Amino acid sequence: MKPVRLTRFKDGRHCVSFYLEGKRRRETYSNLRDAQRRCGDVERLIGKGHKIDTKQASVHDASTQYAIGLLAQKDIQKPLTSVIEEYAAAIQILGGQGTLVEACEAYINNQDKIVPITVSDLVVDYNRYLKGQKVSEGHRDKTINIYLKRFATAFKMEISLITLKDLESWRAGFSSSPRTTNNYCNAVKALFNYAKDRGHLRGDRATEASKVKDVTEEATEANPFTLKEMAVLLTGVDEKSLPYIVLGA
């Protein structure tokens, strides 16, 4: 049995009926839309175990009528209780700093400043940047054609849409050594930082890539040269390089 029932009288009025504490309650409305909203409100309140106002406050209270009318005017298809709950949650998030309208305006303004770009286009742009910075061809080739090529193939989308979860799932598919995996991730982190500097990501927050933690690399045992091996090195090295070999030893 439905907790709330909506019926229509012969005179055109609408009746919302429900049971509260074992007693049947009935509320009448001249407007069908108001009656439907009241049904939604009561169903939500009953479902959450909240107290229901049985004095027909939604009809007689002027402020409630104003709120319902404003929602209808703005064509907001949400029950009044949902709007209030959402507003209360938003105010709690703000923690007393500014208003909800100011928060919304700041969000929209920051969104407008982001310049959309796909990962593949960003990698091309980043390659041009590295050339201009005179990065060695070997390092640039490895970064672009190995590390970031694999990344661009996996993410055919705008970089601003990539989440931490996406990045972690992508990294989980690696079968390479921890060092190689971290090299891939470091290249991606550098790409995200470049995107942030160029306005493709929000400038007021850390990038999603920066939140990816490095894979722990196992320490390797030292493998020093023996005395005989060092004697061979010191004998064959030229005088210019000799100090470096000695210090390294």
Describe the structure.
The structure is a single chain. The chain has 249 residues and is mainly α. Helix content is 56%, strand content 8%. It has eleven helices and three strands. The protein has helices spanning 32-47, 57-60, 62-73, 80-94, 100-113, 119-132, 137-154, 164-172, 178-197, 227-236, 242-248; strands at residues 4-8, 14-20, 23-29.
Task: Kindly summarize this structure in a few lines.
The chain is mainly alpha-helical. It has helices at about 30-45, 55-60, 60-75, 80-95, 100-115, 120-130, 135-155, 165-170, 180-195, 225-235, 240-249, and strands spanning about 5-10, 15-20, 25-30. The protein has eleven helices and three strands; from the N terminus they run βββααααααααααα.
Keywords:
249 residues; three-stranded antiparallel sheet; 8% strand; mainly alpha
Uncertain residue segments:
55-60
Report how far the terminal alpha carbons are from each other. 86 Å
Tally the beta strands: 3
Helix content: 55-70%
Shape: elongated
How would a textbook summarize the main sheet?
A: 3 strands, antiparallel
Order of helices and strands: EEEHHHHHHHHHHH
SS-derived structural category: mainly alpha
Strand content: 5-15%
Q: Which strand order spans the largest sheet, edge to edge or round the barrel?
A: 1-2-3
